[in-house]
Automatic annotation (TrEMBL):
<dbReference type="GO" id="GO:0044208">
    <property type="term" value="P:'de novo' AMP biosynthetic process"/>
</dbReference>
<dbReference type="GO" id="GO:0005525">
    <property type="term" value="F:GTP binding"/>
</dbReference>
<dbReference type="GO" id="GO:0046040">
    <property type="term" value="P:IMP metabolic process"/>
</dbReference>
<keyword id="KW-0460">Magnesium</keyword>
<comment type="pathway">
    <text>Purine metabolism; AMP biosynthesis via de novo pathway; AMP from IMP: step 1/2.</text>
</comment>
<protein>
    <recommendedName>
        <fullName>Adenylosuccinate synthetase</fullName>
        <ecNumber>6.3.4.4</ecNumber>
    </recommendedName>
</protein>
<comment type="similarity">
    <text>Belongs to the adenylosuccinate synthetase family.</text>
</comment>
<keyword id="KW-0436">Ligase</keyword>
<keyword id="KW-0342">GTP-binding</keyword>
<comment type="function">
    <text>Plays an important role in the de novo pathway and in the salvage pathway of purine nucleotide biosynthesis. Catalyzes the first commited step in the biosynthesis of AMP from IMP.</text>
</comment>
<dbReference type="GO" id="GO:0005737">
    <property type="term" value="C:cytoplasm"/>
</dbReference>
<dbReference type="GO" id="GO:0000287">
    <property type="term" value="F:magnesium ion binding"/>
</dbReference>
<dbReference type="InterPro" id="IPR027417">
    <property type="entry name" value="P-loop_NTPase"/>
</dbReference>
<dbReference type="GO" id="GO:0004019">
    <property type="term" value="F:adenylosuccinate synthase activity"/>
</dbReference>
<keyword id="KW-0479">Metal-binding</keyword>
<keyword id="KW-0547">Nucleotide-binding</keyword>
<dbReference type="InterPro" id="IPR042111">
    <property type="entry name" value="Adenylosuccinate_synth_dom3"/>
</dbReference>
Length: 110
């Protein structure tokens, strides 16, 4: 986490458990339009958006139920890798990860 933005910017990832059954997870990391690459946001107008090519980073799924996990280190490695990738991609640390529908189904990372 040393290269990430310092708080007050922190993230909460909710509903990580809904990804439990995916074999792979694609995350849009940039957009290409007319030879230009955009990493901050896709084009704002609908005509341009229709012509955009989306570039994805693909992550391996974990294909196991994580609803009862309460420690980050107990998550499957692929789930941990996904959370760390989100941190890297947005340059903001993840403080909480929701892993199920119940109030106690949250992991606090720091």
């Amino acid at each position: 986490m040393s290269n990430l933005a310092a708080p007050p910017y922190i993230l909460a990832i909710t509903k990580l458990d809904i990804l439990d059954e995916f074999e792979e997870i694609k995350v849009a990391v940039s957009y290409e339009l007319d030879g230009k690459t955009y990493t901050e946001a896709p084009p704002a107008n609908a005509a341009d958006m229709a012509r955009v090519k989306v570039n994805y980073e693909t992550f391996k799924g974990w294909q196991t139920c994580i609803a009862k996990v309460r420690k980050f280190g107990d998550l499957p490695k692929n789930a941990q890798d996904y959370v760390r990738a989100v941190e890297r991609l947005v340059n903001v640390p993840v403080k909480w990860v929701g892993v199920g529908p119940k109030r106690e189904a949250i992991i606090t990372l720091f």
